[in-house]
Design a protein that fits this description.
By secondary structure, the chain is an alpha+beta fold. Among the domains are: 3-318, Beta-galactosidase, Chain A, domain 5, CATH 2.70.98; 645-723, Sandwich (Immunoglobulin-like).
Length: 725
């Protein structure tokens, strides 16, 4: 059993293969957090030491015991208004206007398999793979009930947490803040590792000490955002890539989120992950519930690398769904950087012809194929094929392209609308807009109110009418602005951001059910909605609109801490790069793009025959190593933010082969020889380097490393090792 309950002491223990998570409903019914870390036997309740802390208040139940204070005790789900002055997991405004939620233990339930969340993405697992613990807490006065959900995937070393908040009393209450996970640590100093960024430079690694202050990251933009990713690591001071203790918190949600970390007055550390409290005031009438999206937790005592590989496996096996969960994905060429919106059907066909010649599997027609869409100021929302621009029907174009042996994909942006569009002229009331105020434009777009079913249904029918015209095998779903004018004609205003995201999920689920063979790729100005929630629907997400391979080294490095490379949309683009102007070798662009879904973002007709032959070789090489890249263990070998060399490797789970990748970011005259140490190999086994035929013991490659060839700036080195004999 992964879940153990001591009925007498009311102690709940969650065991995975290498970790233990433990909590206790104490004598007052307060659910205390006892321990989370490396697997241990027995009760850890001895760790909780009570002392009189002066101005820290005492619950009335404790009588004259001034040592019992929720201001210092570690809690599983702390509510506001209980004398705990730290950040709360739940803030509730009650029917009488008060803000208080004093949650006490009311029972538990254990079941086989992993719980599911209605309308929300979540980790899934069978009865053989997981168990679920449900602990019920209740406020005795308001009768607000909170069901804490714990999913235990023992073999994966993963524990998931969610909460369902139900108003079981009379009178309306309002949820002002709700987290799905709280981690209270009663000792130890930690760093917070987060991933900040901006459009075209997402997920930059950032490590800061958790101070005696409330440190908050999150998004108020309506999407998980390019600015902060909804995933963090709490790391012990000595934690590195390969050693030390660290805790991961990954929020399975694609909208506004909030992560808080603080060290309190006596050195305890609290970390919270959940819904952002900004723009959030969620009313619950009697009998209504709010489900908080789940957080995926894991603990690694072997540093960040092991933590990352656990998340990679969990996402591949228990988040990804559908045809492409475990199947190879097509190598594609996207038309965007080839033509932008200046194309015709013949140009798209010629691009497909070039793709066929190079061995590329799929041609994707990006923005510009619909309505009066000749620039990005008009026609969003008018999802009708512009047959005059294409010179034929969409079905005829797809048939011609398929005749070349090339698959066809298409770009959409269903959540957005231009004011210069037939849709907006017919339904101006369908956008998010505050009455009496002019809306905030972004990229000259407004946002459709996807919290409203009639809006989603109309767009869905339009998109389906397009997809039904031919053999469309891929859809790129873009979202190119943030949500600002938060007013809906259908929902109370504090519910909009949450209901909007549920609307997006409902739309995606319907699309996948109607077209189960389609490969859906997520996108939000690139990586502005790169999160575990969207990966439940789209097994790959366009990692960044920045295709420069040197910038991508850092972007893909940060992304790799939680998300598998098989989820990272990554392409070879032309030089000078369209975003940075940088000129890099084609080989380097290929090596970097191979650490992702792999494809091209250029016009092959503009390439020399030598370059075209190099592309053919890249395609062959990627197909040769694709299984290893997609399913192998991923190792970060250097830090591209600090080191001259950016290096990483894919290693087969059984250690039978490895693919080493290196890019030199900067060079100097008369430089020293560079050495890269590999990881994950069998120490006593002999490995042959395919290109040179040289053999090395795994231990030597890991402890001493391999010398790199003399490389110039921005040049790449890629080599494959396989077990000898």
């Amino acid at each position: 059993m992964a879940i153990l309950v001591d009925e007498e002491k009311r102690i709940f223990t969650l065991h995975t293969e290498h970790t233990t998570y433990q909590m206790k409903a104490d004598r007052y019914g307060v659910l205390l957090h006892l321990y989370y870390g490396a697997r241990v036997p027995g009760s850890m309740e001895y760790l909780v030491v009570q002392r009189d802390r002066g101005f820290s208040g005492n619950i009335y139940d404790a009588g004259e015991d001034r040592s019992y204070s929720l201001d210092t005790l570690p809690q599983e789900y702390p509510g506001s208004g209980t004398g705990d002055f730290r950040s709360s997991a739940l803030v509730m405004r009650n029917a009488d206007g008060s803000e208080c939620c004093d949650l006490r233990y009311a029972g538990y339930e254990i079941s086989r398999g992993k719980y599911a969340l209605q309308g929300l993405p979540a980790v899934y697992a069978s009865g053989e793979e997981a168990e679920t613990l449900k602990i019920t807490l209740e406020d005795a006065v308001t009768k607000v009930r909170v069901q804490l959900l714990y999913g235990v995937l023992a073999a994966e070393d993963m524990i998931t947490r969610s909460a369902i908040i139900t108003n079981c009393g009379s009178g309306q209450v309002v949820v002002e803040k709700a987290a799905s996970a709280c981690l209270d640590f009663i000792n130890g100093d930690y760093d917070l590792i987060s991933f900040h960024g901006r459009h075209m430079m997402e997920r930059n690694f950032q490590r800061t000490e958790i101070l005696h202050a409330n440190q908050v990251i999150g998004s108020r933009r309506g999407a998980s955002s390019s600015q902060y990713n909804p995933a963090v690591i709490l790391a012990e001071k000595n934690a590195t890539e390969d050693s030390g203790g660290c805790y991961g918190m990954v929020f399975v949600y694609s909208g506004n989120f909030q992560c808080e970390a603080e060290k309190d007055q006596v050195g305890n550390t609290r970390a919270l992950m959940g819904l952002a409290d900004a723009h959030f005031h969620y009313p619950l009438k009697e009998g209504e519930s709010l489900t908080v999206p789940e957080t995926i937790l894991t603990y690694s005592g072997q540093g960040f690398g092991e933590l990352s590989r656990r998340y990679h496996r969990c996402i591949r096996e228990h988040i990804f769904r559908g045809k492409y969960q475990k199947q190879s994905k097509p190598i594609l060429l996207n038309s965007w950087e080839a033509f932008y919106m200046e194309f015709t059907g013949d140009k798209i066909y010629q691009l497909a012809k070039e793709s066929a010649d190079l061995g590329i599997d799929m041609l994707v027609m990006d923005d510009g194929w619909f309505g009066n869409r000749f620039d990005d100021n008009r026609a969003l929302g008018d999802w009708v094929v512009n047959e005059e621009k294409l010179g034929c029907t969409l079905g005829e174009l797809i048939t011609r392209i398929n005749g070349l042996g090339v698959k066809f994909g298409i770009w959409i942006e269903p959540e957005m609308v231009n004011e210069d569009s037939d849709l907006y002229r017919a339904h101006p009331d369908w956008v998010l807009q505050i009455p009496g105020r002019k809306p905030v434009r972004s990229r000259n777009q407004l946002v459709l109110d996807f919290s409203r079913k009639e809006v989603r249904d109309y767009i869905f029918d339009q998109i389906c009418a397009v997809l039904d015209q031919g053999n469309v095998e891929y859809v790129k779903w873009d979202m190119n602005r943030s949500l600002v004018d938060l007013y809906s004609m259908e929902h109370p205003q504090g519910k909009i951001t949450y209901e909007y995201v549920l609307g997006v999920y409902e739309f995606a689920e319907r699309l996948l059910k109607r077209y189960p063979e389609i490969l859906l790729e997520g996108c939000s100005g690139g990586g502005g909605r790169f999160d575990a929630g969207m990966l439940y629907y789209s097994t790959q997400i366009w990692c960044s609109d920045n295709t420069d391979p040197i910038d991508r080294l850092r972007i893909q490095y940060g992304t790799s801490f939680f998300y598998p490379v098989s989820a990272m949309g990554s392409h070879v683009s032309a030089v000078p790069n369209h975003q940075t102007g940088r000129i890099t070798p084609l080989h380097t662009r290929g090596v970097v793009a191979m650490s992702g879904t792999f494809g091209y973002e250029l016009n092959p007709a503009a390439m020399s025959e030598e370059e075209r032959e190099a592309v053919r070789k890249q395609v062959r090489e990627y197909r040769k190593y694709e299984h290893l890249i997609r399913t192998g263990d991923y190792y970060r070998l250097t830090d591209p933010f600090a080191d001259a060399y950016a290096a990483w490797a894919f290693v087969a789970e059984d250690g039978s082969e490895a693919l080493l990748n290196v890019v030199l970011q900067e060079t100097h005259a008369n430089k020293a020889v560079g050495y890269i140490k590999l990881k994950g190999l069998k120490s006593e086994a002999l490995y042959r380097e395919d290109e040179t035929g040289n053999t090395y013991y795994g231990g030597a490659l890991m402890e001493a490393g391999i010398p790199l060839p003399d490389m110039g700036e921005y040049q790449a080195y890629q080599t494959h090792f396989s077990l000898e004999g």
